[in-house]
Automatic annotation (TrEMBL):
Cofactor(s) required for function per UniProt: thiamine diphosphate
Occurrences of domain Thiamine pyrophosphate enzyme TPP-binding (ranges): 390-539
Family that this chain belongs to: Belongs to the TPP enzyme family.
Keywords linked to the UniProt accession: Thiamine pyrophosphate
GO cellular component, one term: acetolactate synthase complex
Transmembrane segments: none
SUPFAM superfamilies tied to this protein: DHS-like NAD/FAD-binding domain, Thiamin diphosphate-binding fold (THDP-binding)
Keyword Amino-acid biosynthesis on entry: no
Pfam families with a match to the protein in the record: TPP_enzyme_C, TPP_enzyme_M, TPP_enzyme_N
Protein's recorded name: Acetolactate synthase-1/2/3 large subunit
GO BP terms, alphabetized: isoleucine biosynthetic process; L-valine biosynthetic process
Positions of the Thiamine pyrophosphate enzyme central domain: 197-323
Organism: Nonomuraea jiangxiensis
Amino acid sequence: MMSETISGGHLVAKALKAEGVDVIYTLCGGHIIDIYDGCVDEGIEVIDVRHEQVAAHAADGYARITGKPGCAVVTAGPGTTDAVTGVANAFRAESPMLLIGGQGALSQHKMGSLQDLPHVDMMTPITKFAATVPSTERVADIVSMAFRECYHGAPGPSFLEIPRDVLDAKVPLEKARIPEPGRYRASTRQQGDPAAIERLADLLAHSEKPCILLGSQVWTCRATDAAIDFVRALNVPAYMNGSGRGTLPPGDPHHFQLSRRYAFTEADLIIIVGTPFDFRMGYGKRLSPGATVVQIDLDYRTVGKNRDIDLGIVGDAGLILAAAAQAASGRVGDVVGKRKAWLDELRAVETQAYEKRLPRQHSDAQPIDPYRLVHEINEFLTEDTIYIGDGGDIVTFSGQVVQPKSPGHWMDPGPLGTLGVGMAFAMAAKQARRDKEVLCLFGDGAFSLTGWDFETMVRFDLPFIGVIGNNSSMNQIRYGQAAKYGEDRGRVGNTLGDIRYGEFAKLLGGYGEEVRDPADIRPALERARESGKPSLINVWVDPEVYAPGTMNQTMYK
């Protein structure tokens, strides 16, 4: 009696299924098609895109939305190099995903086979794990190993190349190691050093002016409830960045946004959760040197990097915040009530900044003031709208104004600052959460990079609302050039054509409009929502208006 056999591609699919992956993002190639055959048998959806960068970004986006690792599958050589940007973005953004790349047959190793490149050498610096699968028997085993490494410390991407003959070969089923679901990965949730938790509780008990920054790891750890309980029980004003946006809804008494610089200057205790001291934080220099600084992070290497701290705690944000709140509850006494004056002080700063900007948000100017556009978008969002920002100057505007109304409803590239993530993130968000509305704000430069995958959205019936803030320029760079070299050289290498992207959407089977009057923005958004199609609302914004962050060039400091 002959034993049952299984191919490498089917072993990949079984390993993906064991990890809970229900979709792969891919662009086809002869090296990888046996994985497709396995995915069909395992009930895993195959979404084929028009550029491998989109496949990798979509795997990143899928991980952010679902909490499960994403997976992209690309062919060898240029297929894998096209995906490098998506992997690099996931690496800096701490997003767990697996990229599987094809490779020439082992039997042709170093012979110059089609699309042969040293993929593992190229991927090693931007992944948590990169390897070649050496034999068919080990395919599922090494896929599970790659997923395990995605969750070592702070999450991140892994890469595997699978030679064509390893992937296509069949081996007896009993000889293949196939790890069982739930039995090859341990819990990564660490509560942190108990002594450090006690010290944090004491700091909270004696602080008159504390504040907390809730960063992306609050969402990564699904620590929303713990973070809300912490700030409310201890009466601590909260600021949010990255995927941490939306932890508290707009209007919550502990939700602050526009007074962050003031708080970081005046606070006596600053708690930084899940955010490194990178360029977004001025490498830690924006925090008052007189404040007590506490940093909580999943990755030991991040704590205390670029700036000295008074207390560092490594572990899961939710467990640490819950433990600290419980430890502090019996010793804070009257200090919680006394913090009302501190919150009132911050609210006054917040209100002043908001009112100063309000005339711009209601501007009737033509071309349209970008503040008016992002204001209209913010007013349009529902509790079920996932907001995605993909661009430079226009997204810098939105970061000041747009406030997601629910946790996990904000997506941006992260610290790599990658343009072109928007279409892929919208694809992943809508595919994973069809019950949600998805709205993506693009710069026209950012949209141009990966915009052809609008057709993929149409093909797979993934409706979303796309808005392009169109100034026919790469305006964030343009401002810096003009400031540095003069206006006569301010248009070198950064000026785009006047493209009617609403017509582009129609060409590809979606819904599209052109908007030049600010009064038409909201009606156009409503029509896009009602169309039930992938849509592009092309809004012509003033190219001579720049975001404050652009004018301060804070992204480079």
